[in-house]
Design brief:
This protein is α/β, with parallel strands linked by helices. Helices cover about 25% and strands about 30% of the residues.
């Protein structure tokens, strides 16, 4: 039964990154079922995320759709990190046109820029520290000219 709930949660997307679900983003920490009650522990990508309320509502809706009569969503106090994202999630970001976050040691120490997700060139210029959402930055590729967003490493 718990597997069924995990599958249901894979249908919940982060509205700011619609190509990824909350499970592959590493936001869901655990699912417990007891009778018809389901308890989900999750952590938001950051506490000020404007999509938080919607994500919670979508989780409850998905779990009820999977058969739960009672749903408890518990927000964990452990910080989320881009290191929690599955490798497949990072590849989905790249295919969607968003540069995935660099591994944390590389992002923190070397302050490297991400390669262009379209042509792979490392010749990119940071245009803005913020993209369409707080979790992304805006770059332009000097090789192909594409403007793209990059997911910030946190």
């Amino acid at each position: 039964m718990v597997e069924r709930y995990w599958e249901a949660l894979k249908g919940v997307r982060d509205p700011e990154i619609p190509v990824l679900n909350i499970v592959e983003m590493g936001m869901v920490l655990g699912v417990e079922a007891e009778g018809e009650k389901v308890r989900v522990r999750f952590r938001p990508t950051f506490s000020g995320c404007p999509a938080l309320r919607l994500i919670r509502e979508e989780m409850e809706k998905a779990l009820r759709g999977a058969g739960a009569k009672e749903v408890e969503v518990v927000e964990a106090r452990t910080p989320w990190s881009t290191e929690a994202m599955a490798a497949e999630a990072k590849e989905k970001l790249r295919a969607y046109g968003i540069a995935p976050p660099l591994p944390l040691p590389m992002a923190e120490v070397a302050q490297e820029d991400p390669p262009c997700p379209r042509c792979g060139s490392g010749q990119v210029v940071l245009k803005n520290a913020f993209g369409a959402t707080l979790c992304k930055m805006l770059y332009q590729c000097q090789a192909c000219g594409e403007v793209f967003e990059a997911f910030k490493a946190v």
